């Protein structure tokens, strides 16, 4: 029900249950159900699935899908059979729950409490379960504790069933070793690149081509409805009046909350992060590590660490950084423990070797350290003033909001209605429904209400935000439309130029590959391009080739080659075509096996467990009798194989 819970419940079993199984039932019947047809959607082995339960599940999944895919349209959902996806998942869950009951698998109240307490979203700063936080978070998501706990209990039950079914799965060490050798084997190729950028000078694009492209792909240049709003924030922070807080107030709060103002041990650090996915190929990790080590050596030789931090965080290298900042001990999540541990071992100005976390590789420079202790009043004075001002503002917020809403209802303009409270009327930039101002923290219903306003109209009621409320007036409204051709002409010209240049690069690469079919032709090509021939870094079967990007066909060809030699065919890579050949293969590094053995065995065991669960579920599906009572609720059945966009429900 809640996103935090869904993020938490990501075990392999739950993933299989929600979204990874293709539902194929032997019987999808429209039966002669004799019960209350008005309330029943379908029966599974004679047990009803109620319409109200289905609609509740449908709305919850719809919310999650639209949060994750803001641009998904109702047509995408209909074409992908979204209603049927929700239904089939409910059927699958029903079958698995019944099977768990038959096997005597259950979730006790103690297990439920224990697992809920582990969810980070419900924990306080000390990583302890916070009942008040739990209640408030559920309330904010319009979910009762009973609903959440029933939903979570169901997920734990399915997880236990999946684990039970997977118990027989075993992987011998020899089997894991053979797969390790296969997957860790590397190849090195030589290649001659024909980059598209080398052929752009010979490309001419006419206005007619640009216009034709624009008309054929006009949807790509669609602009959504947009709105600019005048707004007044009603949050404790926006309404706070720090000047009204006296020194006496501050001293009293400081004395009453000594523990709050204790300072943990902390270290000042700055760092560079080269972002890498957790499953990045080893050769990519090795290349990133090599680059960061070179940076570290530069700093050790006297280069300023700050000059290594990119000014543009959106750079192509995926490198970001942060200058000096204090890091309190124990403040980072567990997955960043290696970062924190290294930071506290560094001496002042010392630079670390690359440190791996779930985000990628970090290079850390240490600064001064502070021991734990009591912070002085002078140090926290401004902090206390701000906190007390916000607390007082929070106490008055509802009363002020009611007074202003009454003035607005009587016809006063927004500026006059808020004048007495001395609150500023701000104006946003234009924004689309899927990209509201992040600083306001608008809820989804609030955004919907804003886009229902006409120009100059003020919302009938305050709209909820992450930290309070906001009163909104639509300042300007832009209807959906299309970017004019003149505005996108240069973009289209660039695309067409790139397309034509790639065609020319492909033709030249194919011509070169054909010339290599004879011995004399091969010699001539190698002589003509001797200064352009490059050698790749080692790569694995996953398809990523350093310097060329993802090229699974070329990678597969390299590993299938019987020995060194040119392939005499052209391969498309990122922004280019290449003629390539195998230089050599590199066996798996035996020294890594002892370090990674347990992980390989665990991963392969998990894979076998997944296969067992799939087979088990298929058996349940084949034996199930599903009768649909009210098929109109589900809409048209999607074509087998699907013709539209599939939306995953996990």
UniProtKB/TrEMBL annotation:
<keyword id="KW-0143">Chaperone</keyword>
<keyword id="KW-0697">Rotamase</keyword>
<feature type="domain" description="PpiC">
    <location>
        <begin position="264"/>
        <end position="368"/>
    </location>
</feature>
<dbReference type="GO" id="GO:0005886">
    <property type="term" value="C:plasma membrane"/>
</dbReference>
<dbReference type="GO" id="GO:0003755">
    <property type="term" value="F:peptidyl-prolyl cis-trans isomerase activity"/>
</dbReference>
<keyword id="KW-0472">Membrane</keyword>
<dbReference type="Pfam" id="PF00639">
    <property type="entry name" value="Rotamase"/>
</dbReference>
<comment type="similarity">
    <text>Belongs to the PpiD chaperone family.</text>
</comment>
<protein>
    <recommendedName>
        <fullName>Periplasmic chaperone PpiD</fullName>
    </recommendedName>
</protein>
<keyword id="KW-0413">Isomerase</keyword>
<feature type="transmembrane region" description="Helical">
    <location>
        <begin position="12"/>
        <end position="31"/>
    </location>
</feature>
<keyword id="KW-0812">Transmembrane</keyword>
<dbReference type="InterPro" id="IPR052029">
    <property type="entry name" value="PpiD_chaperone"/>
</dbReference>
<keyword id="KW-1133">Transmembrane helix</keyword>
<keyword id="KW-0997">Cell inner membrane</keyword>
<dbReference type="InterPro" id="IPR027304">
    <property type="entry name" value="Trigger_fact/SurA_dom_sf"/>
</dbReference>
<dbReference type="Pfam" id="PF13624">
    <property type="entry name" value="SurA_N_3"/>
</dbReference>
<dbReference type="InterPro" id="IPR046357">
    <property type="entry name" value="PPIase_dom_sf"/>
</dbReference>
<dbReference type="Pfam" id="PF13145">
    <property type="entry name" value="Rotamase_2"/>
</dbReference>
<dbReference type="InterPro" id="IPR000297">
    <property type="entry name" value="PPIase_PpiC"/>
</dbReference>
<keyword id="KW-1003">Cell membrane</keyword>
């Amino acid at each position: 029900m809640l996103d935090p819970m869904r993020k938490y419940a990501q075990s392999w079993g739950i993933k299989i249950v929600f979204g990874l199984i293709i539902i194929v039932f032997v019987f999808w019947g429209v039966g002669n159900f004799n019960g209350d047809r008005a309330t029943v959607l379908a029966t599974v082995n004679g047990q009803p699935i109620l319409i109200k339960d289905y609609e509740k599940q449908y709305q919850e999944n719809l919310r999650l899908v639209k949060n994750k895919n803001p641009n998904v349209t109702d047509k995408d959902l209909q074409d992908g059979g979204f209603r049927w996806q929700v239904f089939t998942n409910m059927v699958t869950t029903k079958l698995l729950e019944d099977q768990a009951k038959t096997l005597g698998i259950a979730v006790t109240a103690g297990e439920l409490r224990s697992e809920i307490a582990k969810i980070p979203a419900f924990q306080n700063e000390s990583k302890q379960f916070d009942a008040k936080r739990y209640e408030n978070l559920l309330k904010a998501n319009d979910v009762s504790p009973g609903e959440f706990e029933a939903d979570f209990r169901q997920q734990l039950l399915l997880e236990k069933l999946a684990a039970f079914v997977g118990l027989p799965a075993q992987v011998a060490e020899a089997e894991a070793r053979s797969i390790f050798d296969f997957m860790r084997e590397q190849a090195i190729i030589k290649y001659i690149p024909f980059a598209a950028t080398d052929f752009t000078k010979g490309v001419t694009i006419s206005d007619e081509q640009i216009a034709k492209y624009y008309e054929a792909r006009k949807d790509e240049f669609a602009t959504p409805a947009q709105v600019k709003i005048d707004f007044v924030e009603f949050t404790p922070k926006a309404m706070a009046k720090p000047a009204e807080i006296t020194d006496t107030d501050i001293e009293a709060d400081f004395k009453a909350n000594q523990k709050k103002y204790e300072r943990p041990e902390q270290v000042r650090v700055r760092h560079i992060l080269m972002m890498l996915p957790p499953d990045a190929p080893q050769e990519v990790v090795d290349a990133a590590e090599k680059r960061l080590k070179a940076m570290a050596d530069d700093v050790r030789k006297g280069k300023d660490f700050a000059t290594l931090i990119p000014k543009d965080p959106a750079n192509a290298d995926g490198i970001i950084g942060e200058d000096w900042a204090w890091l309190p001990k124990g403040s980072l999540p567990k997955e960043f423990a290696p970062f924190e541990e290294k930071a506290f071992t560094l001496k002042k100005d010392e630079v670390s070797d690359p440190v791996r976390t779930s985000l990628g590789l970090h290079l850390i420079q240490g600064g001064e350290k502070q021991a734990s202790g009591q912070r002085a009043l002078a140090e926290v004075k401004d902090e206390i003033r701000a906190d007390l001002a916000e607390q007082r503002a929070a106490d008055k917020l509802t009363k002020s909001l009611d007074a202003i809403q009454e003035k607005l209802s009587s016809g006063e303009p927004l500026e006059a209605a808020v004048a007495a409270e001395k609150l500023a009327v701000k104006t946003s930039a234009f924004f689309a429904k899927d990209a509201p101002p992040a600083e306001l923290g608008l809820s989804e219903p609030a955004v919907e209400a804003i886009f229902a306003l006409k120009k100059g109209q003020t919302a009938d009621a305050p709209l909820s935000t992450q930290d309070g409320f906001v009163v909104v007036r639509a300042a300007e409204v832009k209807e959906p439309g299309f970017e004019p051709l003149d505005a996108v002409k240069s973009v289209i010209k660039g695309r067409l130029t790139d397309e034509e240049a790639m065609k020319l690069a492909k033709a030249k690469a194919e011509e070169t590959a054909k010339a290599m079919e004879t011995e004399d032709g091969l010699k001539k090509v190698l002589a003509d391009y001797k200064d352009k021939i490059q050698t790749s870094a080692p790569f694995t079967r996953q398809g990523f080739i350093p310097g060329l990007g993802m090229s699974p066909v070329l990678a597969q060809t390299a590993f299938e080659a019987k020995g060194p030699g040119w392939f005499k065919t052209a391969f498309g890579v990122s922004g280019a075509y290449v003629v390539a050949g195998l230089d050599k293969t590199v066996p798996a590094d035996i020294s890594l096996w002892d370090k990674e053995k347990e992980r390989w065995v665990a991963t392969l065991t998990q894979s076998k467990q997944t296969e067992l669960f799939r087979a088990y579920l298929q058996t349940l599906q084949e034996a199930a009798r599903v009768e649909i009572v009210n098929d109109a609720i589900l809409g048209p059945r999607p074509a087998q194989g699907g013709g539209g966009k599939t939306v995953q429900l996990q």
